[in-house]
Amino acid sequence: MDIVGYIASIFIGISLGLIGGGGSILTVPVLVYLFSVDAVLATAYSLFIVGSTSLIGSFSYFVKGLVNIKTAIVFGIPSIIAVFLTRAYIVPAIPQEIFSIDSFTVTKSILLMLLFAVLMISASYSMIKKDKPTANDTTQKQQFNYPVILIEGAVVGILTGLVGAGGGFLIIPALVVLSKLPMKEAVGTSLVIIAAKSLIGFFGESGETMIDYIFLAKVTAFAIAGIFIGMALSKRIDGSKLKPAFGWFVLIMGIYIIIKETLLK
Prior knowledge:
mainly alpha
């Protein structure tokens, strides 16, 4: 299963390099179901893996001038604060046993996996639906709806802190709609935001979790290798055509997690 897990880690990076996101949504299921990592620890590991791969992935966007620093700061600050506080205080405060129904007990791990499954299903919708032709790739006058951006950044930060996913499927539409960024610039800026908040969230851990840094470095290395493979493939394959198929896969995985964590327990 470990070998399958490392191969899956490569595909996490490939999806990031090929379609500009979405791969991080598979990180926690890979860690939990293939590497048998506890769900709570898996969300911490995922923050590091997602943060590192996003950081590497953002370099090419930096070089091409497709990262909007001002937007990254405005959106990123509330998001980073929310991730840090969530990992340092909210996650440790969740009790190990939430509630029981007959013989079925909802534990902290089950709760996080169910929340993650809901997030996967939400992410799959944004991947499956066809993008309407818009002027997203044309330069518009940038404007900031500060209250909405601050709230959106904080919400994305809390979700990232709880489940360890980057949240690119939430950030990119927000940057396009709320900050009037062209799509490619939104993707590049999103990667920078995800890298910053995920890595800061990881290093803001409460200290209760025992991190296996050697294992973490291995999985991250495979995911980063996948990014370069994905970037090379993106020159030959149109990632936008693969996005709906990947979305259906994420949807099936989300439904599977709900069934496995409830009916199959």
